[in-house]
């Protein structure tokens, strides 16, 4: 039998449900704290779980985008539409040897 585990990312405090999620170590540079926690503004466990799962999915999508856009992504230069940071503007009429070598190498 296959067992599944569902993370609700919720906890209860004074009867009110809260969302809490630890920020991944490789994404902490984008946040001021190591954890996201806030009130879900409900006393219903059913509503809290629905809201928490929706918020967790939004965070997962956002974190995926942040990871893909990071500079240390292996093979980032191979992505379609990747832009080289060291591109040279060839529209100018710069005929110096240094500029020519930079364009062709």
User: What ranges have pLDDT less than 50 throughout 5 or more consecutive residues?
Assistant: none
Helix content: 25-40%
Q: State Rg.
A: 23 Å
**Oligomeric organization of the protein chains:** single chain
Strand segment tally:
3
Shape: rod-shaped
Order of helices and strands: EEEHH
Query: Percent of residues in beta strands?
Result: 15-25%
What's the layout of helices and strands?
Layout: E1 10-13, E2 16-22, E3 35-39, H1 45-68, H2 97-104
Antiparallel strand pairs: 1-2, 2-3
Quick description:
The chain has 105 residues and is α+β, with helices and mostly antiparallel strands.
Description:
This protein is α+β, with helices and mostly antiparallel strands. The protein has a domain at 1-71. It is built from two helices and three strands; from the N terminus they run βββαα. It has a three-stranded antiparallel sheet with strand order 1-2-3, with helices on one face. A hairpin with a 2-residue loop joins strand 1 (10-13) and strand 2. The longest helix has 24 residues, at 45-68. The protein is rod-shaped, with a radius of gyration of 23 Å. The termini are far apart. The model has no long low-confidence stretch (mean pLDDT 80).
């Amino acid at each position: 039998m296959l067992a599944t585990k569902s993370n609700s990312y919720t906890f209860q405090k004074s009867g009110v449900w809260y969302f809490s999620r630890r920020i991944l170590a490789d994404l902490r540079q984008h946040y001021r704290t190591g954890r996201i926690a806030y009130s879900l503004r409900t006393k219903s466990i059913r509503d809290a779980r629905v809201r928490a799962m929706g918020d967790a999915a939004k965070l997962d999508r956002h974190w995926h985008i942040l990871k893909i856009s990071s500079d240390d992504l292996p093979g980032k230069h191979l992505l379609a539409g990747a832009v080289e940071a060291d591109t040279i503007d060839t529209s100018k009429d710069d005929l110096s040897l240094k500029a020519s070598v930079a364009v062709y190498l």
